[in-house]
Specification:
Layout: E1 2-3, E2 6-7, H1 13-32, H2 53-68, H3 73-78, E3 93-94, H4 99-109, E4 116-118, E5 135-137, H5 142-155, E6 160-166, H6 169-184, E7 188-195, H7 201-211, E8 219-223, H8 226-238, E9 246-248
Parallel strand pairs: 3-4, 4-5, 6-7, 6-8, 8-9
Antiparallel strand pairs: 1-2
Pfam families: ANF_receptor (PF01094)
GO cellular component, one term: membrane
Keywords: Disulfide bond, Glycoprotein, Membrane, Receptor, Signal, Transmembrane, Transmembrane helix
Length: about 250
């Protein structure tokens, strides 16, 4: 799938298909129970946002457009999978999965008073109800993850660690929370760096080479998305540093 000149890549089984199937199963159970929502049938329309804000915003605009202006008969005939008979009122949006993308989508949805539920968004910024009054989530914020990671560091007696994060909202807010907590208990940050998940190999190599500059800091606290972690691990193999670092992350 390609949008805005960006190739979305292959379908991710764990992050994509499994969550879609779990959604279908959950809806089937809810709709088959007459005591949960009597005379109400829940439906879902799922779209790929490619972990990319412009695509997510485009899909959100289309959701809102269809909610405000129900599709005409001619439009329905042109759309194989969606009809006026099957489409009900839009009552909310689940996702996107990334904090940075969810932030931008929420800025749009709240203009239309549409609730949004984040299933994996952990940014502390989204807890600010003065800014995001229509956002709810089912996972704890970065602050608690930062606290747990700091507890691990202290449990092993480490007082000098490096830090790296994905260069977007989740990574930035998470590492900031860790630094604030670490300062209170005299845990020092030796080296700090950030990198985009989509960055080329050369950028990951620069990050790893930066981290290796301090020989006394082999423990690396990592507030990173999965693709960032994969990029860092591949870089350590390229640079023959496989056993040099101990990465701590979720």
């Amino acid at each position: 799938m390609t949008n805005f000149g960006t190739h979305c890549g292959e379908i991710r089984e764990h992050y994509g298909i499994q969550r879609v199937e779990a959604t279908f199963q959950t809806l089937d159970k809810i709709n088959s129970n007459p005591h949960l929502l009597p005379n109400i049938t829940l439906g879902v329309e799922i779209r790929d946002e490619c972990w990319y804000a412009p695509v997510a915003l485009q899909q959100s605009i289309e959701f809102i457009r269809d909610a405000i202006t129900p599709p005409s008969l001619d439009t329905c005939r042109a759309e194989v999978n969606v009809s006026s008979a099957s489409r009900g009122p839009l009552i909310g949006v689940v996702g996107p999965g990334s904090s940075s993308v969810a932030l931008q989508v929420q800025n749009l949805l709240q203009l239309f008073h549409l609730p949004q539920i984040g299933y994996s968004t952990t940014s502390r910024d989204l807890s600010d109800k003065s800014r995001f009054n229509y956002f709810l989530r089912v996972v704890p914020s970065d602050y608690y993850q930062a606290q747990v990671m700091l507890d691990i560091v202290r449990n092993f007696g480490w007082t000098y660690v490096s830090a790296v994060n994905t260069d977007e909202n989740y990574g930035q807010s998470g590492i900031q929370a860790f630094k604030e907590l670490a300062e209170k208990v005299d845990v020092c940050i030796a080296r700090e760096d950030s990198v985009l998940s989509s960055a080329p190999d050369e950028d990951f190599d620069k990050v790893v080479n930066n981290l290796r500059q301090d020989a006394n800091a082999n423990v690396v606290v990592c507030f990173c998305e999965g693709r960032t972690v994969s990029g860092l691990l591949r870089s350590t193999r390229r640079l023959n540093l496989t056993n040099h670092f101990l990465f701590i992350g979720r």
